[in-house]
Amino acid sequence: MARERTGMVERRGAGLWLTHLGMIAGVLVIFFPIWLAFVASTVTQSEIVRPPMPLWPGDEFLANYSKALLSGVNVPVATMLVNSFVMAMGIAIGKIVISLLSAFAIVYFRFPGRNVFFWLIFLTLMLPVEVRIVPTYEVIAGFGMLNSYSGLIFPLIASATATFLFRQFFLTVPDELAEAARVDGARPMRFFIDILLPMSRTNIAALFVILFIYGWNQYLWPLLITTDPEMNTIVMGIKQMFPSGDDVADWPVIMATSILAMIPPVIVVVSMQKLFVRGLVDSEK
Amino acid sequence: MEKRVTFKGWLLPFLLIAPQIIISGVFFFYPAGQAIWQSLFIPDPFGLSMRYVGLGNFEYLLSDPYYRQSFVTTALFSTLVTLVSMVPALFLAVLADRLLRGAGAYRTLLIWPYAVAPAVAGVLWLFMFNTRVGVISWYLGKLGYDWNHVLNGGEAMGLVVVASSWGRISYNFLFFFAALQAVPRSVIEAAAIDGARFWRRFFTIVLPLLSPTTFFLLVVNIVYAFFETFGVIHTITSGGPQQSTTILVYKVFSDGFVGQDLGSSAAQSVILLVVVGLLTVVQFKVIEKRVHY
């Protein structure tokens, strides 16, 4: 995207500063909710319940975070973090593996029913889990998979986006490579492992970033199938920390949990920014 | 497009494709089929038997004022989310595009909220506008405005719209920024030489060139508002007050799980299924177009 920027239509002087000012104002407004949550996670409950709360961090950081992580409200937040991590990794890896395999089969083989399978997978693009919650819940309950990692993971890896992405990519791989492998007498799986997988590295990484965040940020599904607090994920667990009725919520601990819930996906997005932007643009194509 | 070179055999490809087909079958096709099947029945109050009612559930739904209201709410909500998330994003992208240096740093900062789960975003905004402890509601009170989204449906709608749009601004910004960077410099400079000022250039040249991206984002954001905002609504308003923020997806949940009205919930699923289908078709058409530009 490198392009010559000769500055003819770029602003200088006052205009430039106004532009920076506008950007900074935008960033500040966008950041304000996160900042406020962070401040709330470092002060005492009494400072919050007597509004207005301070806008600068206090010195209760360690106290609030260790209370959240080690005891939480219903269950230690550390437990919820582990659950979220297992779920997000399971969804990301599971989706990538099954879609690599099925895309390989669809692109590199001719077998009876291939088109039917292709359309079956294509149909799954269309229906988010939010729409089929009741019957999917019944399936999971029937298998005895409530409150289990497999119940959290499996229904969410049944989607076709990743398969399509890999299919598109495999179609761009030069035919000569498969030809050469065949002439050398290499078995299909050798070709898949030695040539196709290494070539797909960047795509796999980009997709991983998107899917990890997708899995980590799930809300409705864990809400339905984890009735045992020990199995709660952090994103759905925050809401469970609010007391029912008129009791006052433990805001510092809740806000510390919110901050903890956003750290892993934020780290993934910011540290893998290039891959992330690429994955985003690719997966929408 | 098809590969010219393929491998022989049919057992291996079956094994390769089996995991995806089995998982889709068990967790996707079977439940979707169940939804369609259940939508034709009403279970008796004890859940012992099902009574076949044909399209009765649908007829009932379409004449149910609450369900119709939910359609209107969803339309309003998704329109507002689309606007509130796209306009500021475009504005910030235009500003960032005018910078020779530093645009990358701003991008890194602006990308953050995308990573925040809708449900967590809901909690953050709920905290700021909480009627007892919220900072913004407190300052609004000082200015003489009595904020109470627990009782006021309009305020509740405003709050869920802003909380849902917040993370989406990052997403839209990324796409607008990339599109702006791809606008040919020469075109803009030619207009500048002809004496067109910045905003004139923006509205007559840049904005039309952005239209494929804008249209694409329009569709994607509507899909988002329809299906991915459940977390925001559940954490902030739980659909209230008086169902003023009960969007369609929330109603499937509240009727199916809270109200235990399975027939109606299944019929709603089927209606949503049709909506998703239509949106997907539109999305594909849009994407096809996008490639040709």
Question: Uncertain regions of chain B: pLDDT < 50 for 5+ in a row?
Answer: none
Strand content of chain A: under 5%
- The H-level CATH homologous superfamily of chain B, spelled out, is MetI-like
Shape of chain B: globular
Into which percentage range does the β-strand content of chain B fall?
under 5%
CATH topology heading of chain B: MetI-like fold
Beginning-to-end CA distance, first to last residue of chain B: 20 Å
| Structural class estimated from helices and strands of chain B | mainly alpha
Number of strands of chain B: 2
Overall pLDDT confidence of chain B: 87
Question: For the record, what is the CATH homologous superfamily label of the largest domain in chain A?
Answer: MetI-like
- C-alpha Rg of chain A (nearest Å): 24 Å
> How many DSSP helices of chain A?
15
Task: Report Rg of chain B.
Answer: 24 Å
| Secondary structure category of chain A | mainly alpha
Please report the number of helical segments of chain B.
Answer: 13
Main location (chain B): membrane
GO biological process, one term (chain B): transmembrane transport
Pfam family, one (chain B): BPD_transp_1
Family (chain B): Belongs to the binding-protein-dependent transport system permease family.
